[in-house]
Structures are given as structure tokens and as C-alpha cells.
Design a protein that fits this description.
Elements: H1 2-47, E1 54-56, H2 69-81, E2 86-88, E3 101-104, E4 107-110, H3 112-123, H4 133-161, H5 164-168, H6 175-192, H7 199-217, H8 230-243, H9 252-256, H10 260-268
Parallel strand pairs: 1-2
Antiparallel strand pairs: 1-3, 3-4
Helix pairs in contact: 2-8, 4-6, 4-7, 4-8, 8-10
Family: Belongs to the FAX family.
Domain Thioredoxin-like fold: 69-160
Keywords: Membrane, Transmembrane, Transmembrane helix
Length: 280
């Protein structure tokens, strides 16, 4: 009887612990949602009646403006389109838990694709040039390939395969945050599909993608010709991470050698302060 009681109490303890974990997770999520709503309301009020565009994103990294290809994408689009903006590095994550996000005239928009679509409509900046719909579709396909493949190669190289010391040369994160990100990125990369492969296989896949983009770019200044289109912002955003955002990464050799046209492509988008002098 005593032994049965012991196992009953053990079971009760386990169930109680599980319930506690679920409760804590629920409360944490509720608090995060509340804070997110308060943050959005604050910026809705703050920007109401103002056409000043605020871009919310993490602080600058050491070797490039942002370690996020999607932040680079939005900021590059704004520069190409000639849309003035101000930066906010305090409220980094928006309502969808994503960065970057923007605030303008009482509206908050998150996700780089939705941001660019919103800005294109609001400011009448249709960066299609004289390119045909077929050409623009090619540019979109290239950008999507980089978003779905190259992004995960970069994330895995930084947080799973690479050393914290190498990453610290670009941006510093607390060790606990790095550990959490490592587990999260590994899990999401496996869910995406690319994370189930070995490091050497992933490098081979990424290198093949880079070579493909290099062949599509050819001798052109931008992905479709002499003038950039809106998709160039996203393409540059991804490539910039391998050119400036991963010291001594396995793809750097490609961008400086066999696929040097992609390295030159990145340099055409150099920011006001010279990124090429910040390379290490």
C-alpha cells in the first residue's frame, strides 16, 4: 500500500510540474502579448499625424549595418527608393514578434515583404524600371530562393556550426541567448528541411545556390540590368550577410573568387560609411 501511495504521489508531482510549466508559459505569453499591444499603441499615438517613417530594428553590428538580412532588405529598399526614415533601436520587435517593423502616421507594419508593399503604395515608389513582368518574376524567384535557402545556411553557420568567438566579431549576444537561439534555429532549420543535412552537405547546397545567382547576375550591375529593382534589396540583404556578416565563413571564398561578380554587386550597395573597410 505504501509503495502504491509513493507512485501516486510521484505521478501527482509530475502532473503538477507539467501544469506549472504550462501555466508559466501561458502567463509569459500573455505578458508578451500585452507588452506588444502597449508598444504598438505607443507608436500609433506617437506617429499619428506625422509622415516621418520610423524603422524599428536592432542596433548596428560591428561589420555591417544589421546582422539581419531582412533589416538590410528594408533599409536598402528605402535608400533605393529615396524615402527618408529614422531609426528606433529600443522597440526592436513588432506585433508579429518580427524585426524590422515600421511606424508611420499611426500605422504599424511588420514583415519585410508587407513593409515594402505598403511603402510602394504609400509613397508611389514602384521600383520596376523598364523590366518586363517575366524579368521581374526571375528576380522574385532569385530572392525567394535566397530567403528559403541562403538564410538558413547563414543562421546555421552563425549559431550552430560556427564558434561564439567568430560571431562576437560581428555582434555580441549573452551566452544564454546564444544557447537558446542555437536550439531554436536548429529546430526550425530541420523543420524547413535543410537542417537535417550534415554541415558539409549544407555548404554544398549553399555554394550551388550562390553559383546559380552568380550565373543569373552575369555581367549586369544589378540582378536584371543597369538599374536596381525592389527585389535587389532582398537579394543584397541575404548576400551581405555572407560578404560582411560572417568572418571567415566557407562562402566568402566564392564571393571573392569564382563568384566575384556577387562580391562586386554587394559593393555597389555600400552604405555611406564604407563597409569594405570594415571587413575583417
Amino acid at each position: 500500500m505504501t509503495e502504491i501511495s509513493h507512485w501516486v504521489w510521484c505521478a501527482v508531482g509530475v502532473v503538477g510540474f507539467i501544469v506549472l510549466v504550462i501555466l508559466v508559459k501561458f502567463l509569459f505569453g500573455a505578458i508578451q502579448k500585452l507588452r506588444s499591444k502597449q508598444r504598438l499603441r505607443k507608436w500609433e499615438t506617437k506617429t499619428s499625424g506625422s509622415e516621418t517613417l520610423i524603422v524599428h530594428c536592432p542596433p548596428w553590428a560591428k561589420t555591417l549595418p544589421s546582422p539581419s538580412p531582412f533589416v538590410m532588405k528594408v533599409l536598402t529598399y528605402l535608400r533605393i527608393a529615396g524615402i527618408p526614415y529614422e531609426l528606433d533601436h529600443t522597440d526592436v520587435f513588432g506585433g508579429k514578434g518580427k524585426t524590422p517593423w515600421i511606424s508611420v502616421n499611426g500605422e504599424n507594419i511588420a514583415d519585410s515583404e508587407f513593409i515594402i508593399a505598403f511603402l510602394t503604395k504609400k509613397f508611389g515608389k514602384n521600383l520596376k524600371g523598364n523590366y518586363s513582368d517575366e524579368q521581374l518574376a526571375v528576380a522574385t524567384a532569385v530572392r525567394i530562393m535566397l530567403d528559403e535557402h541562403l538564410f538558413w545556411g547563414m543562421a546555421l553557420e552563425r549559431f550552430v556550426f560556427g564558434s561564439p568567438d567568430k560571431m562576437a566579431r560581428v555582434f555580441h549576444l549573452p551566452r544564454l541567448v546564444v544557447m537558446i537561439l542555437k536550439r531554436m534555429i536548429r529546430g526550425r532549420a530541420e523543420g524547413q528541411g535543410i537542417g537535417v543535412h550534415t554541415e558539409s552537405d549544407i555548404i554544398e547546397i549553399m555554394s550551388k545556390d550562390i553559383r546559380t545567382v552568380s550565373k543569373i547576375l552575369g555581367n549586369k550591375k544589378f540582378i536584371l540590368g543597369d538599374e536596381p529593382c525592389s527585389e535587389d534589396a532582398g537579394i543584397f540583404g541575404q548576400l551581405s550577410q555572407f560578404f560582411w556578416g560572417l568572418p571567415n565563413n566557407p562562402y566568402e571564398v566564392l564571393l571573392n573568387g569564382e563568384c566575384k561578380n556577387l562580391g562586386d554587386y554587394c559593393l555597389r550597395f555600400c552604405w555611406p560609411y564604407t563597409l569594405k573597410n570594415k571587413r575583417s
